[in-house]
Design goal:
The complex is a heterodimer of chains A (82) and B (556). Chain A is mainly α. Chain A contains 2 helices and 2 strands. Helices cover 72% and strands 5% of the residues of chain A. Chain A has a two-stranded antiparallel sheet. Chain A is elongated and about 50 Å long. The model of chain A has no long low-confidence stretch (mean pLDDT 93). The C terminus of chain B is likely disordered. In chain B, strands 1-2 form a two-stranded antiparallel sheet. The termini of chain B are far apart. By secondary structure, chain B is mainly α. In chain B, helix 11 crosses helix 20. Chain B contains 24 helices and 2 strands. At the A-B interface, helix 1, strand 2 and helix 2 of A face helix 5, helix 9, helix 11 and helix 13 of B.
Chain lengths: 82, 556
């Protein structure tokens, strides 16, 4: 259980770091630095701010649910069939 | 058929569906009434959360706001989606394992304190009440704009519909109605957006045509020619630090809003809570990634079809004339040169645009059939009614469950508890309706307050309650008081008494992020200086960290 919780916390830390990098890093603090690079016809920071970071958010939650399924099984804390 | 008849038909059909679903899902016990019997599948709960979350403001006003804010509109886009990551990773699975009915239930039990329970219940009622007034107003506005019904009658009709399925079906009725409402609102939003993208760029997928077509570069060029900054230019309205704080405050506030958290109590298991957070954000992101595309396209289209034209040319555009009649669009040849011109200075600009027009006028601008316009009306109503229902349930459960059953009359019978729950929903609807008909002038300020409040109170206390066993009653109460005190003082001082935004120029909208940090630090430090929580509380924290046995969670 202790190990399960530790792994859960590490997973959360990794995913939230990505969350912070795309939203605060690319879209806000890096807004001016990434402005001259293009994605399609949009400035890269603008694309991250109005499209990319939201896609990443969805993926992060999916990855968390998936990896936790595996962790639950591995440490025998999964729920019974309901 | 005319637009008006189509609107009556579509609004009539959708309302009949909501009423039928509400009747079909009527409930007989408090578990069904407050948490839908904890039997909602993950994907259905995701759609219901989407409808619950996306209000009249998200549906009607957000794209318009972004179209006027350009880059800085990201505060709403990221702020109102990023919180779901926090919710999914940090709160939802554990609160589902905890398995009671409300957010104050968790705060009260985890911090073994009736005071904490009461404070949380009052905060939940306050936050939800400020929000619901705006939804009722939204219902009235849609009725009056599309059907010519007076706002008051529009609000009354909306109240009756919500009352029917919320009182009869409680959370179960609300959930399944919200699922239907999600599909109405998302098709009403997507169909016009897809059509506009297709007309302007030849690519029907708004997200792709936004990124790859030349509309945005052209819009940038037009803006520069007219004397504005580029549309994609960051921080043209707000400073970088303010954009950061507002985004963070909205994210954390989202994760702390009781009517969203409580949706995750309704699923079958901890696993379902994780997946339903994924579905919720997936369904929300569909609209939230389309909105910025719509914002840019509509702005481009609007400037292009009006700026530099003569008055007679504009009067040949049917949609321009019909929206001028509503007062949402205005053009006046102020300098008398016969040509309508747009400038950054509002006193000399000859075009006046209300932000709500961006979504509402899209079907006409894109030349779509009347039934699409009617669908937008039905979508706006779906967005407003679904959010109102979710909020009313929180108001009811906070009062009937947390205050009445837990604090005033713990011996109340099941039947009596259910009856009190139904009556408080009715009471909530009447109060919300009153504020919908007579809106207080400070609604916009109050919404900023709701997010700041949720960010500075619920989020840190729930987070520490799960991840830090050492956080005790003293720490939690001190943290909430400091967070709420600071945030409340700053917002009220700044918005109502002209106090300068002294804290690094952060606006009232963003200050909740700072309040949250103060709450976290205070709770952490005070907990270390006072005795640890009792052993049984520490055992409870241990048990909510493991998904095992969520199905058998007890219900007090």
């Amino acid at each position: 259980m202790r190990e399960y919780w530790k792994k859960n916390q590490i997973l959360i830390a990794v995913l939230l770091t990505i969350w912070a990098i795309v939203s605060f890093g690319f879209s806000i603090f890096g807004a001016r630095a990434l402005y001259s690079i293009k994605i399609g016809s949009l400035p890269m920071s603008f694309w991250w701010a109005q499209q990319g970071s939201m896609f990443v958010f969805v993926i992060l939650i999916f990855v968390y649910a998936r990896v936790m399924d595996k962790l639950d099984k591995k440490y025998g804390v999964e729920e019974g069939d309901e | 058929m005319s637009v008006e008849i189509w609107t009556y038909v579509l609004v009539g059909i959708t309302f009949a569906v909501y009423l039928y679903i509400g009747y079909y899902n009527r409930v007989r016990d408090t578990r069904g009434f407050y948490v839908a019997g904890q039997g909602v599948p993950a994907i259905a709960n995701g759609a219901a959360t989407g409808a619950d979350w996306m209000s009249a403001a998200s549906f009607i006003s957000m794209a318009g706001l972004i179209s006027f804010m350009g880059y800085d509109g990201t505060v709403y886009l990221m702020g109102w989606t990023g919180g779901y990551v926090l919710l999914a990773l940090l709160l939802a699975p554990y609160l589902r394992k905890f398995g009671k009915y409300t957010v104050p239930d968790f705060v009260g039990d985890r911090y073994y304190s009736s005071t904490a329970r009461l404070v949380a219940a009052i905060a939940a009622i306050f936050v939800s009440m400020t929000y619901v007034a705006g939804q009722m107003r939204g219902v009235g506005v849609v009725f009056s704009r599309f059907l010519g019904v007076p706002i008051t009658w529009g609000v009354v009709i909306g109240m009756c519909i919500v009352a029917f399925f919320a009182i009869l079906g409680g959370m179960k009725g609300i959930t399944w109605t919200q699922v239907a409402q999600y599909f109405v609102l998302i098709s009403a939003f997507m169909i016009p957006a897809v059509a506009l993208a297709w007309t302007l760029t030849g690519n029907p997928i708004p997200q792709l045509s936004f990124t790859f077509s030349d509309i945005v570069p052209r819009l940038n060029q037009i803006q520069v020619d007219l004397g504005f900054t580029e549309y994609t230019q960051p921080f043209s309205n707000k400073s970088m630090i303010d954009v950061f704080c507002i985004t963070l405050a909205l994210m954390v506030g989202t994760a702390g809003l009781p009517h969203i958290i409580v949706r995750f109590y309704t699923v079958r298991s901890v696993r379902a809570a994780r997946y339903s957070a994924f579905w919720a954000l997936f369904f929300i992101t569909l609209l939230y990634t389309t909105a910025p595309a719509l914002a840019a396209f509509a702005r481009y289209n609007l400037i292009n079809s009006i700026h530099g034209k003569t008055v007679t040319e504009i009067q040949e555009l049917d949609w321009a004339v019909s929206w001028e009649e509503t007062g949402l669009l205005g053009f006046e040849d102020k300098n008398g040169n016969g040509i309508i011109e747009m400038t950054p200075d509002t006193t000399t600009s000859e075009i006046k645009v209300d932000r709500d027009i961006i979504v509402l006028s899209t079907p006409e601008v894109a030349g779509l059939a009347p039934w699409v316009i009617a669908l937008v009306a039905a979508g706006g109503l779906a967005a407003a009614l679904s959010t109102a229902a979710g909020l009313l349930l929180v108001i009811s459960s906070s009062f009937a469950h947390d205050i009445y059953t837990r604090l005033i009359n713990p011996k109340a019978s099941e039947a009596k508890r259910l009856l009190v729950g139904r009556f408080t929903i009715l009471g909530g609807i009447i109060v919300a309706g009153y504020f919908g008909i007579n809106p207080p002038g400070f609604v916009a300020e109050v919404v900023a307050f709701a997010f700041g409040f949720a960010a500075a109170s619920f989020f840190p206390v729930i987070l520490l309650g799960i991840f830090d066993k050492r956080t005790n009653k003293e720490g939690a109460i001190a943290g909430m008081l400091v967070g709420l005190g600071f945030t409340g003082f700053y917002i009220i001082g700044n918005r109502f008494f002209g106090m300068p935004a002294f804290f690094f120029d952060i606006s009232a909208q963003g200050i909740g992020a700072v309040g949250m940090v103060f709450n976290l630090v205070t709770a952490f430090v005070v907990s270390r200086l006072t005795p640890p929580p009792p052993q049984e509380i520490q055992d409870m924290v241990e048990s909510i960290r493991s998904p095992k046995g969520a199905g058998q969670a007890t219900h007090a």
